[in-house]
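User: Hey, my collaborator sent me this sequence without any context and asked if I could get a structure. I don't really work with proteins. Can you help?
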Amino acid sequence: MTTAQSAQLPLLDLDMLRTLVAIADTGNFSAAAAVVFRTPSAVSMQVKKAEEIVGRALFHRDSRSVTATTDGEKLVQHGRRMLALNRDVMMQFVAPDVTGTVRLGAPDDVADRLLPTMLRSFVSAYCGVTLDVVIDSSSKLQAAVKDNSLDLAMITCDPAVRQTKDVEIIFSESLTWAGARNGVAFEKNPLPVSVWEEGCAWRNVGLKSLARSKRDYRVAFMSAHISGQRAAMLADLAVAPIPVSSCTAGIMALNESHGLPDLGDYGLGLIVTKNPSSPVQVAAEHLRSGFAALK
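Assistant: No problem. I've predicted the 3D structure and written it out in structure-token form, which is a compact way to encode the shape of the chain:
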């Protein structure tokens, strides 16, 4: 390629790349629009323009989600690299408004499903803030904020149970019994269940529902991690109470037609330390806004 030909190549602006990365992270145009502060139609226009520039389809679209094509994945990877370089360069010239460290705690399932996109967008928006993240059980995270070893934490909780004044419910989602697709664990008696320790909101809701429906059960598998719960279900060793959104990749929701009771919703609570610093305050607000966009 000659120098003249190289000079004529079209340029991909950072704003467009930021939109493409947001779509890849969130899985749909509406959520990406909230991340980049644009309308969904404006996001669609940016995707169309990017596809015209590169001459390739960048995303597969269906009624439920958006996924990157092979070419789209290449461009998203390039976009992440360019946005990171831009952030590093600008930090040398522009002093960030908020600086400091935030010690954040989250339960395993939140870290697995919901947290990555929010943390990525937070780091992009507040490049002067360092995040230290701890993944642990909700009970331990709540105690860590109380003893000041964490600045803020998210915990799972039962919305039907009165929470302490320091817990702010920022998100709720339906719980369901779940098991392996085409599995038979739900047919066994006593019912084999996979749960975690006393104090786990999912455990409490699930076992109470079985007690109310007078369904015999035994705890067949115990794991503090969503990956462990999934392993138990995929092996058809047990059923487990999990969020509906976790019923993917071979795991299906089970309901009354399978002889299992309805579980209602669970809540995600936010706890913030007393007298929070500016970085902690902006981190808490970022989480509130991020989870509000998921409702």
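In plain terms: The chain has two domains: 3-90, 100-295. You can pass these tokens on to your collaborator as they are.
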